[in-house]
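Hi F.,

I've been meaning to write this up properly since the lab meeting, where we talked about keeping a consistent format for the predictions we share between groups. The idea is simple: the sequence comes first, exactly as it goes in, then the structure tokens exactly as they come out, then a line or two of notes. No screenshots and no reformatting. I'm using this chain as the first example so we have something concrete to point to.
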Amino acid sequence: QVQLVESGGDSVQAGGSLRLSCAYFGYSEFRYGVYSMGWFRQAPGKEREGVALVDRVGDTMYADSLKGRFTISEDNAKNTLYLQMNSLKPEDTAMYYCAASTRLGSRNNLLPREYNYWGQGTQVTVSP
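Output, unedited:
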């Protein structure tokens, strides 16, 4: 059974930084069967949206509105995905989810429907 476990969410003031982590557990071949791993977020009353992804060869992709502030990275030795978030704004407040996809359609694609493994989420709250 594959599991994704997020951590690192917190309450911060605008302008601050946070680093989210996503540890993935399960069968050892999991990561090599995955096309993309990504971060998504969902604010109250809004649809879930893609934030960033990294594919199996290490290429990254970001939501246009977040480029320059957020950085996705992965430590394969630790089976952990990260999201560094800088210059946080109140509109970044949301539940942040880690996800993985074994679907070819997830390549260069931040649509949540293309991802078939999800973590439980970690809350990020940014105050003015």
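Notes:
The longest strand covers residues 18-25.
The chain has a mean pLDDT of 93.

If this format works for you, I'll send the rest the same way.

G.
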